[in-house]
Amino acid sequence: MPNHLQDTVTLNNGVKMPWLGLGVYKAQEGDEVVRAVKSAIQVGYRSIDTAAAYHNEEGVGQAIAEAIQENGLSREDIFVTTKVWNTMQGYETTLEAFETSLSKLNLDYIDLYLIHWPVGGKYKDTWRALEKVYKEGKVRAIGVSNFNIHHLEDLLTDAEVVPAVNQVEFHPQLFQKELLEYNHDKGIQLEAWSPLGQGKLIEDESLKAIAAKYGKTPAQIILRWDLQVGVITIPKSVNEHRIAQNADIFDFQLDGEDMAAIEALNQNKRFGSDPDNFIF
Questions:
Q1: How many CB atoms lie under 10 A from the CB of residue 256?
Q2: What is the pLDDT of residues 17-49, one digit of tens each?
Q3: What residues does 79 pair with on adjacent strands?
Q4: Quick one: pLDDT band at residue 252, thresholds 50, 70, 90?
Q5: Can you give the residue ranges of the NADP-dependent oxidoreductase domain (predicted)?
Q6: Distance of CA 123 to CAs 94, 98, 188, 190, 209, Å?
Q7: 149-203: pLDDT as tens digits
Q8: How many CB atoms lie within 10 A of CB 9?
Q9: pLDDT for 280
Q10: Which of 70, 80, 150, 251 to pair with 37, CA 20 to 30 A apart?
Q11: Distance separating alpha carbons of residues 167 and 212, to the nearest angstrom
């Protein structure tokens, strides 16, 4: 059970990844994303999640470089995730996309590289490219995002490397229990994007009641719940106060009754796209 902001989970290849990270989806390239990332690292975050499709890798790279220097850190202290976008999937194009991301981030290596969505007919070739850069030591771990069980089963029939991470939409109204258990059985770490349901879940009355009990915010309750069900979580924010607040979840523990009550909020409701009905 993580008890500190910098606590890590050990992935299936031995690499250690922080349980909590900052997501930068929709953070504007330039000052906005630079400020958000630097604020997070100042607070104590050590994991930053971006993607080619977010169009802010350069700002993320700049912020990491500045934060390392300003906080007396080293590159090894920061865990950086990025992803290959759908239009670049395929073997050769993914290799190109990886080098582009590496260059924009201005890094010598990436900690975790993900396939952003399971593009039919392409994700297996994309995975071969990820295996290549992994074996070459350019990335410490490789994984997928938005893969359902049948996508993973298909990928694993040919994969030489089992994905280390599967990053999916996961929150109290989309408690993907079967997917969570499948990934766990395969040694794949589940990671939550949109853990707060695009901010909509913080208005839920039952979550407000649980929050009052612990003297926390609904957002903090949800993020703590993620960790207690064994899911890495990466709430996004560009607000310095909320970035700090989201990290203040290591001084309490939800009891079994409240864990069950949060799980019971499940409606199989998505705020983002469905991987099986995504227009690639």
A1: 8
A2: 999 999 999 999 999 999 999 999 999 999 999
A3: 47
A4: very high
A5: 26-266
A6: 10, 15, 17, 19, 43
A7: 999 999 999 999 999 999 999 999 999 999 999 999 999 999 999 999 999 999 9
A8: 17
A9: 67
A10: 251
A11: 30
What pLDDT is attached to residue 278? 84
d(CA 244, CA 237): 10
The encoded tokens of residue 45 equal 């975050």
18 Cβ neighbours under 8 A, 6+ residues apart: 5, 6, 7, 8, 45, 46, 47, 79, 232
Catalytic residue among 54, 113, 123, 134: 54
- Looking at every residue in the chain, the average pLDDT score rounds to 97
Q: How far apart are CA 113 and CA 98, in angstroms?
A: 8
Structure-token match 């953070």, residue found: 27
What is the fold of 17-268?
TIM Barrel (3.20.20)
Q: Which two tokens stand for residue 272?
A: 């983002």
Q: Which two tokens stand for residue 194?
A: 């949109």
54 noted as active-site residue? yes
**218 neighbors 176 (Cβ within 8 angstroms):** no
Contacts 24+ apart (CB under 8 A), 29-32: 29/55, 29/56, 29/58, 29/59, 30/59, 31/59, 32/59, 32/238
Of the candidates 48, 61, 175, the residue with the CA atom closest to the CA atom of residue 112: 48
Six-digit token pair at 53? 């499709």
Q: Is the pLDDT of residue 121 over 90?
A: yes
Show the tokens assigned to 75.
């590159």
Domain ranges of the chain: 17-268
